[in-house]
Design goal:
Layout: E1 9-14, H1 18-33, E2 37-38, E3 47-52, H2 57-76, E4 81-85, H3 86-92, H4 94-99, E5 105-107, H5 115-123, E6 128-130, H6 136-141, E7 158-162, E8 164-165, H7 176-180, E9 184-185, H8 188-200, E10 205-209, E11 217-218, E12 221-222, H9 223-231, E13 238-242, H10 251-259, E14 266-268, H11 276-281, H12 288-301, E15 306-313, H13 320-333, E16 337-342, H14 360-384, E17 389-397, E18 404-409, E19 414-418, E20 427-435, E21 440-444
Parallel strand pairs: 1-2, 1-3, 3-4, 4-5, 5-6, 7-10, 10-13, 14-15, 15-16, 19-21
Antiparallel strand pairs: 8-9, 11-12, 17-18, 17-20, 18-19, 20-21
The structure holds S-adenosyl-L-homocysteine, iron/sulfur cluster (SF4) and FE3-S4 cluster.
Residues 167, 169-171, 174, 176-177, 211-212, 245 line the site of iron/sulfur cluster.
Length: 446
């Protein structure tokens, strides 16, 4: 017999980037406040929240097919509420309600804190759409109302902290300025208050988040000053940030990273494409030479830095020779992580008016070449660490191997350490003893 006192159960499914992960974490906390428990089983859920991504067509389509499948559970549980949040919700708004009868709530990227009201409305059987942007002042002061700060959960060793919202860059291929809005930087006092709280609650590492973090500018404080202020906080062991844009990168930022022990020697610096003509058409604002100059200086100042990047293959009119330049940049920069994508036209973006003329077969073939070069470079990077003594931040128990904990080096390489007594959040010295398929194995040093 169902327990009348049992808490309702929520299931959150997150797609897309770390910003979405971060928003999902905030919504999880709100649902906890609303008295929800969590489940991974849709048949048990009273509320299913899909936090969506529309950066390419594939993840967008996934949302629609998933909503269709979840609709089945409504037949068994007519009280089940289904919400679509995130970037598809922001972009499509009420069209989602028209298209998918299963959906009860559509909430845009600035509406997270209205979740309780929207839920109340849906419980009364009224479908709800909210995609308005939050007023700018409210955004700069608080991404989260200050009184909510106390409810923060820190799960694991690392905690995300949003410092900007939106993006003003309007790269020609990118939907993000439409789904996240114009760039807003959060007040730095508020960022520091949240950072302190996260450290108090056990975070060893803070990850500053934004679509373009180094364009941060608020109250006369720029990204370099903010970075230093957070890095100086007592109790913090590691600081990372993502994503910076090459246009706003500077030698001074490299110097700051090189000189501050708490700022990790790892950097995700997306370059997208190697050829200058393509970079221009992408409206990236930098050339290949400028990018490689930044990389050279980073490597000079921080020789053990772990670099990663995003790459798009098959942008409209990209020739084989131009693609070869992307390969050249990869050979020179030697990324330890690469996120590569086939160009996917997005509605309303500048590039959407260009013919998507690189055939799917060619895009696929270029993607494979990027990935196989990346694999071979990463293999060399992993092998080069054998025998080294590296600091590892333990972040989880190995999902399959008993007694094995996993973590990351400062340069963000994954390491498995056989030691059952290790705890999440431990920062330990490890000797690298073996290379696994995509990671390292290490022995705990006293
Ligand atoms: N703000 C980040 C990128 C956010 S989107 C930055 O500027 O670096 C994450 C990645 O998705 C982008 O770096 C790009 O490589 C990829 N991407 C964005 N739009 C795309 C599209 N239309 N087709 C294929 N990949 C895309
Ligand atoms: Fe998109 Fe460019 Fe902004 Fe990154 S910098 S979010 S790629 S518009
Ligand atoms: Fe996707 Fe939106 Fe992030 S489109 S990549 S979830 S900002």
């Amino acid at each position: 017999m169902p327990d009348a006192n049992a808490k309702p159960k929520a299931l959150i499914e997150t797609f897309g980037c770390q910003m979405n992960e971060h928003d999902s974490q905030r919504m999880r906390e709100i649902l906890l406040q609303e008295g929800y428990d969590f489940t991974r089983a849709p048949e048990e859920a009273d509320f299913i929240l899909l936090n969506s991504c529309s950066v390419r067509e594939a993840p967008e389509n996934k949302i629609y097919s998933m909503v269709g499948r979840l609709g089945e559970f409504k037949k068994k549980n007519p009280k089940l509420i289904i919400a679509v949040a995130g970037c598809v919700a922001q972009q499509e708004g009420k069209r989602i309600l028209q298209r998918q009868k299963e959906v009860d709530i559509v909430m845009g990227t600035d509406q997270i804190f209205h979740l309780p009201e929207l839920l109340a409305q849906a419980r009364q059987g009224k479908r709800a759409v909210r995609t308005a942007w939050m007023p700018r002042e409210q955004k700069t002061q608080n991404f989260i109302p200050t009184e909510e700060l106390a409810h923060f959960e820190v799960r694991g060793a690392s905690a995300g902290l949003a410092i900007t919202k939106g993006c003003d860059n309007f790269c020609s291929f990118c939907i993000v300025p439409a789904t996240r809005g114009r760039l807003v930087s959060r007040e730095w006092e508020n960022i520091l208050a949240e950072a302190k709280l996260l450290i108090e609650k056990g975070a060893k590492e803070i990850l500053l988040l934004g679509q373009n973090v180094n364009s941060y500018q608020a109250g006369g404080v720029n990204f370099a000053r903010l970075l230093k202020a957070v890095a100086d906080l007592k109790g913090l062991r590691r600081l990372r940030f993502t994503s910076p844009h090459p246009n706003d990168w500077s030698p001074a930022l490299t110097d700051l990273m090189a000189g501050h022990p708490m700022i990790c020697p790892s950097l995700h610096l997306p370059f997208q494409a190697g050829a200058d003509r393509i970079l221009q058409k992408m409206r990236r604002g930098h050339s290949q030479a400028q990018y490689l100059e930044q990389v050279a200086y980073l490597k000079e100042k921080i020789p053990h830095i772990g670099l990663s990047s995003d790459i798009i293959v098959g942008f409209p009119s990209e020739t084989e020779a131009e693609f070869q330049e992307t390969i050249q940049v990869m050979r020179q920069a030697r990324f330890s992580q690469v996120y590569a994508f086939k160009y996917s036209p997005r509605p309303g973006t500048k590039a959407d008016s260009l013919p998507d003329d690189v055939p799917p077969r060619v895009k696929q073939e270029r993607l494979s070449r990027v990935l196989s070069l990346f694999e071979s470079i990463r293999e060399e990077i992993l092998l080069a660490t054998l025998g080294q003594k590296l600091e590892v931040l333990i972040d989880q128990a190995h999902p399959k191997e008993q007694g094995v904990m996993t973590g990351r080096t400062g340069s963000h390489l994954p390491v498995a350490v056989l030691s059952p007594e290790l705890r999440i959040g431990d920062l330990v010295l490890v000797e690298i003893t073996a290379k696994r398929a995509h990671s390292l194995e290490g022995r705990l040093l006293a």
